[in-house]
Specification:
13 strands; four-stranded antiparallel β-sheet; globular; alpha+beta
């Protein structure tokens, strides 16, 4: 659609937000070994291939951009230099777009050399917090065997899952914890979070309370109290680390425009009352530690206390299938 609009003189494809969707968000949610991306969605996973149509369109718009070139390589040129989605002529991954504007990537054949040339030499940061999605990523370097931590407090939007505060860790060319594939929206029991008394938490967003990164470590923390209390959604800006300037981010979430129609509030009535009393403590902090560059590691620290009563707290970690055997 953006390409068609560009042909008509409407250059939405040149928007800074569209550019950073590929050059920032896709780049930093890419697994360290490349080719696969992390997506938080109803059909999300630790092994999403990315959308060839998106990558082809941005490569067409920015043919000489080194970061776009590298991301394009990892989406369109996946394993065996081809991805099955290029055969589709329908859905979000319409392969016809690549027929119209597709081209080859221009970096070295060697993946690590391509990363050094296009990312390291252009001082691409190793850690990012995305303010509009509340996703945090950190990696030890831009090499295939790097350690990588993905942290998901998450804001509203998209196909939500009860996975606030979940994390994914990858290193040595593989993943060691996963974001599950498929219909993962049914219960917190499907995710790497803490469950209380076997109950699922809500899909409400987690509030980022800290993020900073140095050469030696990246640290992020979130407040999940109202998520575990199943409280009504707060205005978007109350969950952000940095307030967004757009005025609708200060509206109660239920008054935001409907995702499809856009001409009415997202809900027909005000928010429901909280289904549980307030939670005393529900915090998660994560860190990717790189003090020894040869041995980076991740830390996950939780502080959870619902109230003064006794509860069953279960700390969960979603493992790849081969580690379950």
């Amino acid at each position: 659609n953006l390409l068609v609009l560009a042909k008509r003189g409407e250059l939405a494809i040149a928007s800074e937000n569209v550019y950073h969707h590929i050059a920032s968000f896709h780049l930093h949610t890419m697994q360290p070994f490349g080719d696969l991306f992390l997506t938080d969605d109803l059909w999300g996973a630790s092994s999403d291939k990315g959308k060839p149509a998106d990558a082809a369109g941005l490569k067409y718009a920015y043919p000489d951009d080194p970061v776009i070139d590298f991301v394009y390589r990892n989406i369109v040129k996946g394993n065996d230099y081809e991805v099955s989605d290029l055969y589709r002529t329908y859905t979000y991954t319409n392969g016809l777009v690549n027929c119209w504007v597709g081209q080859d990537w221009s970096g070295p054949d060697d993946w690590n050399a391509h990363a050094r040339q296009n990312l390291t030499q252009h001082s691409e940061p190793l850690a990012r917090h995305f303010n509009y999605t509340n996703v945090v990523t950190a990696r030890s370097d831009w090499q295939k065997d790097a350690a990588y931590l993905y942290f998901l407090p998450r804001l509203h939007g998209g196909h939500v899952s009860p996975a606030r505060g979940t994390f994914v860790y990858s290193a040595l060319g593989r993943d060691w914890s996963r974001y599950p594939l498929g219909h993962n929206h049914k219960s917190s029991l499907q995710h790497s979070v803490i469950t209380v008394d076997g109950q699922s938490a809500s899909t409400g967003p987690g509030r980022i309370v800290h993020f900073d990164s140095t050469d030696r470590r990246t640290l992020a923390a979130c407040d999940l109290r109202h998520t575990y209390a199943n409280q009504p959604l707060a205005p978007h800006n109350e969950e952000r680390r940095t307030r967004a300037p757009e005025p609708w981010y200060d509206l109660p979430s239920w008054q935001n425009p409907h995702w499809l129609t856009g001409d009415r509030p997202a809900h027909r009535s005000g928010p429901e009352k909280s289904r549980l009393p307030s939670v005393r403590e529900a915090y998660r902090a994560v860190s990717l530690v790189k003090q020894n560059p040869e041995q980076p590691y991740a830390l996950i620290v939780d502080r959870m206390r619902m109230d003064n009563l006794s509860h069953h707290y279960l700390w969960q970690l979603v493992l790849p299938n081969d580690l379950k055997e």
